[in-house]
Amino acid sequence: MSRPQSPQRPFISFGNPFRMIFPKGSYLSPKLLDLLTTFEETLAGRLKKLKPADKEDVLCLSWMTCAMETLCGIHADIKTLITALELPICDWDDKWIDVYLDNSVKLLDICIAFSSEVSRLKQGHLFLQCVLHNLGNACSNQFIRAHSSMDRWRQHIGSNNPRLGNCFPIMDSLARTLDLPKIKNSAKGKVLMRAMYGVKVVTLHICSIFAASFSGSSKKLMDLEVPETCLWAEAFADFQIFVNTEIRNTYSIKRVISLKEMEDVDTCVKKLYPIVENGVDCVEAAVVKKSALDLEKSAEKLSERLDLLAKEVDGFFQMVLTGRDALLCNLRIDGNNVSNQVIDYNVEGQTVG
């Protein structure tokens, strides 16, 4: 029986942040305006390119890898903009620094949660290897072991990951910080805050897509409203509506397993399960052989794509961490004080990827 579709969450609106950033009468030099325009047009282009060509791609590991790749590109773009603005850290407002450092900690925690889930899914490959090994032997005892390994695989992928659950309140906290501090007497600061707003919105939305994909639930999928004054607003709205609609439609009628590659493996397991459970005769032996081959191909594709996604998540983690460390280093050099509430992020013992 299909689950009833949950009502679509209303758009999360935080007012118009640019009313604070660019009040009436504000002036940007041609150089600053060009930098901001280039950044926003590039962001729009990245969103258009990331929009899936087909709805079947949304809950697919290969598309999720592209999404994480896009995030890395967007965060590289903001670093390039900061360099081009020639705005030294000593000119940054303390509030900007505190918000940046606090948000970076939260992003690192989210990355660790996603990495933990990818690693958990990868561990399931061991059960599939046991299934394939035992199916290769025409022995009733081996078939019993294969059947047991299938049970363990299904139990494993159906289990909950506490770390993944912990990232939901973190994302809610990030959503509450999308409103921007009032900028006074700093044209460069206004450009920086407007660009960072774009990075935060897109990053948060993609993270919510990942959380929904991994958890098999659209409850925490976010709908973020962007002011029309952003050059990337239309591209973001088009991207968000397409992806969110497809995920919600899928979860309203679908199985527990959400990721397409995982579902392909599960389909093979379901086909083999009753045959192996009831015993294999000579006629069914050929069916088992073909089904085992299908399972091997699906399991290998799943493993390879999880490896690629793990690499991209680790790359994003390192990018966020490097940017944070660079800011902290510059603060120490400049002798500025950071809020007592912000501390260095300790990654000792953390494994990502």
From TrEMBL:
<protein>
    <recommendedName>
        <fullName>BPS1-like protein</fullName>
    </recommendedName>
</protein>
<keyword id="KW-0812">Transmembrane</keyword>
<comment type="similarity">
    <text>Belongs to the ROH1 family.</text>
</comment>
<dbReference type="InterPro" id="IPR008511">
    <property type="entry name" value="ROH1-like"/>
</dbReference>
<keyword id="KW-1133">Transmembrane helix</keyword>
<keyword id="KW-0472">Membrane</keyword>
<dbReference type="GO" id="GO:0016020">
    <property type="term" value="C:membrane"/>
</dbReference>
<dbReference type="Pfam" id="PF05633">
    <property type="entry name" value="ROH1-like"/>
</dbReference>
